[in-house]
Amino acid sequence: MGDDNVQIEVFFDGDCPLCTREIAMLRRLDRRGRIRFTDIADPSFDPASIGTTMSALMDEIHARRPDGSFVRGVEVFRLLYGAVGFGPLVWLSRLPGVDALLEVAYAMFARNRLRWTGRCKAETCPVPAR
User: In the chain, where are the structural domains located?
Assistant: First the structure.
């Protein structure tokens, strides 16, 4: 990832109002520059450059560790919050009941994110066949 201080690179949807609010908060909290923020909605971003597709990145949040490995979903948030010093919160999020609840809640959010933020189009939120 280049910078020795960076612990995680997060790939976020800059067109998502809820997502950008959380990213803005994380940017403010990231005083040590441990997070690299990559906006997948930026026209210059090419998902092939990181070996994935836009569809995969839109399905759930992704991040890349310094060793090049990728993480997805709730674990991304744990890494982000750990990078800004919220270790106790991360620890609590790993407790069995809390972990299961977070996984279910995030899966529901990820599935409905475009609909809930008013960004549905025929190609992004198809109407299910009856």
Answer: 8-116
Assigned token pair, 35: 């997070």
Residue reference for tokens 């759930």: 60
| Six token digits for residue 117 | 């933020």
Amino acid letter, residue 53:
T
Distance CA 60, CA 120 (A): 16
Is 56 buried (19+), middle (13-18) or exposed (0-12) by CB count in 10 A? middle
- The structure's pTM equals 0.84
pLDDT digits (tens, 9 = 90+) for 88-97: 999 999 999 9
- Enter the tokens of residue 47: 């998902």
Comparing CA positions, the residue from 31, 63, 29, 57 lying closest to residue 42 is 57
Is-contact 60 53, C-beta < 8 A? no
